[in-house]
Amino acid sequence: MGSGYLVIFIHMLMVLFHFVFAVSSDDNSEFWLSTDDSPLNLQLQAWVGRTGKEWSAPGEFEKYASQNSRPVRLSAQMRYFFEVIHKQNDRGTDHVEVAWLHLDQDSSFMIIESKYISLYTDESALSMNDVSHIPQTAASHWHTPTKQRSAEADMLIEDRRDSFYKGYKFLQGVLPDCAYKPSYTIKDLPLLRYQGLQFVHLSYIYPNDYTRLTHMEMQTSCFYSESSYYLKMFGFSRYMRLDRPQERERLNRGMFYFCLFFPISKFKLLTLSVHLTQLFFIWCMLDFNFQGWKRIQDKAHFYNKNYEKKKEVKLDDVDNGHLRDYGDEYNYVQNRRRKLFSLRAQGREEDEVYNRAKRRRNTTEDERDYLWRRQGEFDNADDEDLTPAPVVDIQVNWNQTFQASPLDLQAQRSDWIDLQCNISGNLLLHSNDALDIVKTFMDKLNAKHHGRFKLVRVVNVVKRADRFEGSRYLLELELKDVNGQLLRLSQYIYALVHLGGLRNRDFSFKQSQPEVLLCNPVGFHWNPVATVHFVVPVKNQARWVQQLITDMEELFRKSRDANFNLIITDYSSTDMDVRKALQKSSLPSYQYVKLSGNFERSAGLQAGIDLITDDHSIVFLCDLHIQFPPSIIDTIRKHCVEGYMAFAPIVLRLDCGATPLEVNGFGLLGIYKSDLDKVGGMNTKDFTERWGGEDWELLDRILRAGLEVERIYLRNFFHHYHSKRGMWNRRMSTSPR
Questions:
Q1: Are 573 and 645 a contacting pair, CB within 8 Å?
Q2: Residues of the signal sequence (predicted)?
Q3: pLDDT digits (tens, 9 = 90+) for 4-27
Q4: 590-594 and 564-570: which strand pairing?
Q5: pTM over 0.85
């Protein structure tokens, strides 16, 4: 593993502004910024991981919370020393880049252009043993106290959403009323059993809630839109390009990579004169080639010239037309790499060319000699000459720059539920979309109330996209009134799409730009005081039942929200007295019903539903082994709208060595009692003495009734791992093993 450093200055050409810096790399990196031009005043601003397992794609600046700095105030005409530390291994597309966002002007990060940076020291005239010019800074030493940072997962970091449930305020009359008629509801549409899942879409979230399971991702994971085969072959190289000398003069604006160099033990110096991916791949394969050279000498025999010509044609037939032109240096390395991958991919079913080459190949060792020849270089070489090809270190070019294509992975995601992808987390709403809606709403609000309110924080924005009629937004804002009092605003608005047009004098019709009109969807609002009933069927799960009761007590203690009710339907448990445990608890409200016979989830849930007399309260069909976030009661209320919408949050299933998201389960469901009664409640006829599938069948009926189902991932909403021993209808052996 190599290591490198970059020490440069920023030349500020603007007046005093606030910036947010971001770093992206494969693998780990750190961005340190000084308060002035002195290396002594460095402070850690942003970083990608610490353990060597964290990485991000080129241009991906929001994978980890640590990648973004806090706002930094920079002054014009000043130079600021900063340092970038980069650590990489021999896998992936090795890269590092630093970007910034001007808070008053920009809406997205832009990689810092070369015109704003300069080298701390030009090392082109220095010898390799000249090291006195390298500053020893806080970034260079692990024992520095300022470098010790929390290792908590991003999902566990405190978020304003987690406590945004105390107090509320609805502001009426801010927007004009309009009818709520989404285009995606499927009322009365005939569905096959379990087909309703295809009509449930994910909603978009702003700001980033970090529900994406980055610790489970690999470069070929489902989050990245490229095919896994393409990523194995080329990584993210198509997002990066080495500038040619003749092009550099024509570039007025560009996004450039920093020039790094890496000391390697095998060779004195490897530089970034070629593409990063090819550079490190060549180094790794050369190292492997030299180590195996003696074995090749013992076994080597060569193919005849006719076979070599045929093989050359086959390898050149591989279609690389979808790759961009990265220049002559890049194309040379790419041609060598293409042949290398052709042989390394032997036995892969994806490419018949490779399979045919494998069957005709005697040994892989014989072929490694062929890989590293340059075309025509060994045409007249003696077959007995096994001297390896010479390796030439290219001179470091300190003026070399790189370009990176913009990469917005979230914009490439679809709101369709991908049952094969259980790590991607919530869809993220772009800041342009969210902040434009918030700004328009605040303008309308202050026009109505004569500038009384000031926006303090955008806590949460949830968007349900509908490109035909208009998108629905849940705005959760923290406001301050003229008296300095903080207020919580949490309400739905509708952004209608108005497709207007203009008729010209020649009677032709010219389509104008779509106009977004904000309005208040009549009838579509959530009830902040609705009672939420948690219905849980149990049998012989004493410790988990006691844990559920304890968790509900803690939920009440933290939220002080008494408008919830715990309903336990008990199939005659013999390992505890559930009724007595409820009586001893400090729960504000609970109900208990005792059932007989074998455990049936559908029947148990329906028995609890039948105890609810208030049709305008919310039923939350629940399970044991669930850990709830403190805001769960209010969250259920906000995403359940009577007559319009049910709520199916996605739970994080904890397991040994993995924490996948439960993307295909709808067993945890919130819905108004009146709506549940209209669709017929639980199916107790088809699902007796078993569970599994009853949630999808209920989903079919909910959608056919014209309701929509809100589907989002929740922070800190976990399903605990548990043993199946003694569960439900599993019989216990009477004789020990």
A1: no
A2: 1-22
A3: 334 445 555 556 678 999 999 888
A4: parallel
A5: no
